[in-house]
From TrEMBL:
Topological type in the membrane: Multi-pass membrane protein
GO BP terms in the entry: amino acid transport
Extent of Basic and acidic residues compositional bias: 1-10
Entry protein name: Transporter
Binding annotation for Na(+): G59, A61, V62, N66, S301, N333, L399, D402, S403
Main location: membrane
Pfam families: SNF
Membrane-spanning intervals of the chain: 53-71, 83-104, 125-153, 216-235, 247-271, 291-315, 327-352, 387-408, 429-454, 460-481, 493-516, 536-557
Annotated source species: Oncorhynchus tshawytscha
UniProt keywords, alphabetically: Disulfide bond, Membrane, Metal-binding, Sodium, Symport, Transmembrane, Transmembrane helix, Transport
Family recorded in the similarity comment: Belongs to the sodium:neurotransmitter symporter (SNF) (TC 2.A.22) family.
Chain intervals with Polar residues compositional bias: 13-35
Disulphide linkage map: C165-C174
Length: 583
């Protein structure tokens, strides 16, 4: 069923009355075949090189979650045994959805809003929901990058500030067990790294919770301003500038990961961490929650449904081999997650050796705490700690920036394609306005209790909403637009139709995969979120998803035409597709 045709696409045979031989496409191939039916115009930006596109997709998909989320979920759900449900969910759920979005964006050459005019107009609200969700992501995700920038600045010291308990922010519970013997570690003990993160970076002790988040941390606000400045000048000119930036931001993390992997493997006790990471617990395979976690992990890791893949692939040449791109980038993403597990757990084994405890007692931290407490703590007690701290936080910053580029490009492409008359020649101003909105929307996450806000936005602003949006997108394409029509679209680009495997996945398996996915639970440190905050969270989630039914009602009530024309019949306009009509 899988047609492994990793080659340049064949020349399609023109059929039908509209088929014609257009001008040659100067895409990524030296001798590309002429394109039938439609030809690209010069009005839309194009990637300068194929690698610009691939690195942008890899940079978006490989983010901080690959480093902190996958290793934790892997050992929590059976170690090496977890790789079985993970691979199964990737093959039957994640990769087919990834391939679907790349193909949709490349064929229709438009963003997440206007693309629905050509697929199924009544579902156009999905595009607006995607943009709102992308805004929520920008409100909290860039704050995490700002935390990494704060650490990066603090790393330029001969002695890292989270090495000992002699700082102004430390408490009597601070316990430094490195380089000391007979140190007692109890439930009240806090490492220097933990107190640096919670009491110096976040200053979360000055907040009583969401009902009193405290003031804005000016140091973090300055870090966030620098992050958004980089983002603006990377995106303001379109894919021709962002495509160059990703050559650094998408490749540097792999250099750093390799260095940290070598260093971790040479630490005493590293083997304990690797055994703990990969030792299979086969009984876990019979637990439904393990398969659900695998589905959620692969979905949030590859990132279909966020509109980013639609946007990035819309700047490709029409005959680009998006099938090969989907397979290659998905493999890179999954292998990066697997490699990150070794980088993390060799260090956790080292810490367990130093504390004289089991690895599972050290590996309780998850999420950002794994990157901002556990790993920095280990780095601080290595030889050459300053160097390793600097490159580690450079890696975190670049991993985050790539995903920010993709998320904001999804909004930019979607809105500019939907309103070209107003924004066609005003990209720089529009991007500036968008960045300002994202910066202002992030201010609540920069307060003393900002970490609570970050977790709330991550769970309710993105988690459940994006799964629901991805589910509806898969249903709309497979069942309303039609799997036959979609397969013909791919054939017109690649020269061959997708195999039966892909069709079955798109029609049934992938939507079912999304139906069982679920976001991680709402939990941060020992804080119990009050009931009213859960209500606020549901309102935040509804504020993105509500655009889908709202637009459906609008389409049914206020637009002219028959019921079929208003709901499922695609609107065919050559100019809206950025294509030239063929005589």
């Amino acid at each position: 069923f899988l047609k492994s045709k990793f080659r340049e696409p064949k020349t399609p045979t023109p059929t039908g009355s509209l088929s014609a031989q257009g001008p040659s496409n100067t895409g990524y191939n030296n001798n590309p075949a002429p394109v039938p039916v439609i030809t690209q115009t010069n009005s839309r930006d194009k990637w300068s090189k194929k690698m610009d596109f691939l690195l942008s997709v890899i940079g978006f998909a490989v983010d901080l979650g690959n480093v902190w989320r996958f290793p934790y979920i892997c050992y929590q759900n059976g170690g090496g045994a977890f790789l079985i449900p993970y691979i199964v969910m990737a093959i039957f759920g994640g990769v087919p959805l990834f391939y679907m979005e790349l193909a949709l964006g490349q064929f229709h050459r438009t963003g997440a809003i206007s693309i629905w005019k050509h697929i199924c107009p009544i579902f156009k609200g999905i595009g607006y929901a995607i943009c709102v969700i992308a805004l929520y992501v920008s409100f909290y995700y860039n704050t995490i990058i700002a935390w990494a920038l704060f650490y990066f600045y603090s790393s330029f010291a001969s002695v890292l500030p989270w090495t000992n308990c002699d700082n102004a922010w430390n408490t009597e519970n601070c316990t430094n067990y490195f380089l000391k013997d007979n140190v007692t570690w109890n439930n009240y003990s806090r490492s220097p790294a933990e107190e640096f993160y919670t009491r110096n970076v976040l200053e979360i002790h000055k907040s009583d919770g969401l009902h009193n988040v405290g003031g804005v941390r000016w140091q973090l606000m300055l870090c966030l301003f620098l992050i958004f400045t980089i983002v603006y000048f990377s995106l303001w000119k379109g894919v021709k500038t962002s495509g160059k930036v990703v050559w650094v931001t998408a490749t540097l993390p792999y250099v750093v990961l390799f260095i940290l992997l070598i260093r971790g493997a040479t630490l005493p006790g590293a083997w304990k961490g690797v055994v703990f990471y990969l030792k299979p617990k086969w009984e876990k395979l019979f637990e439904t929650s393990v398969w659900v976690d695998a589905a959620a992990q692969i979905f949030f890791s590859l990132g279909p449904g966020f509109g980013v893949l639609l946007a990035l692939s819309s700047y490709n040449p029409f005959t680009n081999n998006c099938y090969r791109d989907a397979i290659v980038t998905s493999l890179v993403n999954c292998l990066t997650s697997f490699m990150s597990g070794f980088v993390i757990f060799t260090v956790l084994g080292y810490m367990a050796e130093k504390r004289n405890v089991n690895v599972e007692d050290v590996a309780r931290d998850k999420g950002p705490s794994l990157l901002f407490i556990t790993y920095p703590e280990a780095i601080a007690n290595m030889t050459g700690s300053t160097f390793f701290a600097i490159i580690f936080f450079v890696m975190m910053i670049t991993l985050g920036l790539d995903s920010t580029f993709g998320g904001l490009e999804a909004i930019i492409t979607a809105v500019m394609d939907e309103y070209p008359g107003y924004l066609a020649n005003r990209r720089e101003l529009f991007v500036l306005g968008l960045v300002v909105v994202c910066f202002l929307g992030s201010l609540s996450t920069l307060t003393n209790g900002g970490a609570y806000v970050v977790k709330l936005l991550e769970e309710f602003g993105v988690g459940s909403s994006i799964i629901a949006v991805g589910f509806l997108e898969a249903i709309a394409v497979s069942w309303f637009y039609g799997i036959t029509r979609f397969s013909n679209d791919i054939k017109s680009m690649l020269g061959y139709s997708p195999g039966l495997f892909w069709k079955v996945c798109w029609v049934a398996i992938s939507p079912a995969f999304l139906a069982v996915s679920r976001p991680p639970p709402l939990q941060l440190f020992d804080y119990k979120y009050p009931d009213w905050s859960i209500t606020v969270g549901y309102v935040i989630g509804a504020s993105s998803f509500m655009w889908i039914p709202i637009y459906m009602v609008y389409k049914l009530v206020w637009t002219p035409g028959s019921l079929k024309q208003r709901t499922i019949m695609p609107e065919i306009h050559a100019d809206s597709l950025n294509m030239s009509p063929v005589p």
